[in-house]
Here is the input.
Amino acid sequence: MKKRLLFFLLLATALHAAARRQPKEKDFADYLFAYFEGGSDRQTQEQLRFAISKDAKDWYALNGNKPVIASDSLSESGGIRNPHIYRAPDGCFYLTATDLHIFGQ
Here is the structure.
């Protein structure tokens, strides 16, 4: 029992230390763009997609431009808009998006 507890304490400490590591600017090499598409198949519209770029001019859609995360797992309406990646002062990255849920519909 003590060995198991010690193992979990060491694992938690290691995970905590890894999560708190601050990336340095030199560690970043590419750009990531979060977007949705409104002109394709109705079932795949307003779903989260990602694209990458080396120079922030020429973009390559990931996953064959298919949704990376289904919006119904993120929103009540099943659709999202305005995905945005935010880098917080603590160095962590956050992804936000607008849920299309409108009361009364």
Remarks:
- Residues 77 and 101 are 5 Å apart (CA to CA).
- The chain has a mean pLDDT of 75.
